[in-house]
Amino acid sequence: MTHWSKWTVPQDASLSRHAAAGLLSYRFIGEAINLEFGTHYTRNATIGRAKRLGLLIANPRQGVRTKAERKPRVRKPTPPKPKPIDIPALRCVEIEPLGITVYELTKETCKWPYGDNAPYTFCGHRSLKDLPYCRPHMAISTGPGTSSERAAQRFAR
């Protein structure tokens, strides 16, 4: 159970004295008061009490700034909306799909999808051994390879 104690006049005077010196942070001021009076004030309790008393601890590097001295917030401009891109036409092969459904797919059927929206149909022709597509669809799915793969093929011949 947390023990709540009230700030006393001597504790307020100690807080004012430490804050006026401006050498310690609120954490160390709270620890100094705890050592001096046997209390258990946290950093946040010390900050809250200092605010209620109207005390300010100046940062030696920045000084104390009032609200009027603060820089106004500058809103970042919103980025422009991206322009729509043209989607290139899909590469097709000269093969007539069988138009099978997902439930009719097997290990041996080509799984190349057809259709713009659900339900999709699939090619359905016989696929290459241990591969998902038939020969024509496999050719357009793999492409010519990377430049290093093409160079390796030239030297292997």
Q: What percent of residues are in strands?
A: under 5%
**Total individual domains:** 2
Residue runs with pLDDT of under 50 for 5 or more positions: none
Give Rg in angstroms: 37 Å
Please state the overall shape, judged from the principal axes of the Cα atoms.
elongated
Distance between the termini: 82 Å
How are helices and strands ordered from N to C?
A: HHHEEHH
What is the strand tally? 2
Mean pLDDT comes to: 80
Q: How does the helix and strand content classify structurally?
A: mainly alpha
Please summarize the sheet with the most strands.
Answer: 2 strands, antiparallel
Q: Helix tally?
A: 5
Helix content: 25-40%
Provide the spatial order of strands within the biggest beta sheet: 1-2
